[in-house]
Amino acid sequence: MSLPPLRASSRLEDVRYEIRGPLARRALELEKAGYEVIKLNIGNPGAFGFRTPESMRVALVENLHKAEGYCASAKGIFPAREAVLMQQEQRGVLDVDHDAVFLGNGVSELILMCMRALLEPGDEVLVPSPDYPLWTASVVIHGGKVVHYPCRAQHGYVPDPDELAELVSERCKALVLINPNNPTGAVYPRGVLERLVRLAEERQLVIFSDEIYGEMTYAGAVFQPVAPLVQHTLCATFSGLSKIYRACGYRVGWVSFNGETAHAADYLAGLELLASLRLCPNVPGQWAVQTALGGQQSVRELVEPGGRLFESRRALLQRVAASPYLSCVAPAGAMYAFVGVDPQLLPDFDDARFALELLEEKHVLVAPGSSFNVLYRNHFRTTLLPEADQLDEVFGRIEALLAGQV
Length: 406
Ligand code: PLP
Prior knowledge:
By secondary structure, this protein is α/β, with parallel strands linked by helices. The protein contains 14 helices and 13 strands. The structure holds pyridoxal-5'-phosphate.
């Protein structure tokens, strides 16, 4: 009997997440066939030997006996929410209410929930281009319209507030910021953030600030959280354990709201409803939050000279500087580099084809730049997580492939 095909919902038609798409599946096939593939497509610290700080593991294990049931509040356990609140207070954000902190199964779940609670069909959301593609997907999936604002290499991938202001329409509801940025590594200067906040306040845009790479900055770059700059609109700050605390498998993220929260009571109630529908976030992982936020920030050791991420970044930048084909804005933060290929030297270069060839011929997996919602096709993104000498090896293979294509 031939059955009619069971189709995925049409709502998913324009939803993209290529970081885990067909290329990654092909990499798995190659691995099954016995090849060793170097996978630089995902920022998964555990896959490169980074460990979660010991104190966080102990906090989780010692509280496991309290983590067997759903937690009392759908928003998360009290000590975790309290720790997020205290971190915000230390940053000078004094208007966060305990009730306006939500824990989630990673920032990923909260991004989807926050968009779902906000959007009517056709509502517009400003999202950076390039972006971390879940942000674009989260708008599309809920019937919203993404308005991409360009972040250009010639401006260090920092957005231009004047250009952004031109894109705000009557239907625009929210502004997404990713700072420090994935995939570009840009860290936004305070002055730019202040101008973006004023714009959001004037046009009553909700600010969604994805700060999951927070203190992960290099070479003197300073991370400025957005929340302390906001008063007259609703601001949502997202962060979690996945990156700075190298615990992405714990699946713990949080969002805290400040600014104009009183007029947003209905929205926050909607979010609470969604939080309740999923009953509660993963409980064991939440027990590590207080320890993570309260302790010494061990990420600093990784991003300073001699630290693993710093040295990998240095190796990559040296390779790019020595290459006739490649260019890159030195990442000031996060754990990726967005590398460009010279269109003059390689006019037929196509990022997706290149990524497939690199995988098939050199057994290296990178993410094509166009996966990050840009129109150009001459970039790729790699993580900085491998040891410096492995990145050096990878760039040797990339160089050899490109040389063969000239
Ligand atoms: N936001 C950004 C900018 C990311 O790069 C990632 C993961 O790579 C996430 C959110 C999702 O993180 P989580 O593991 O907390 O779901």
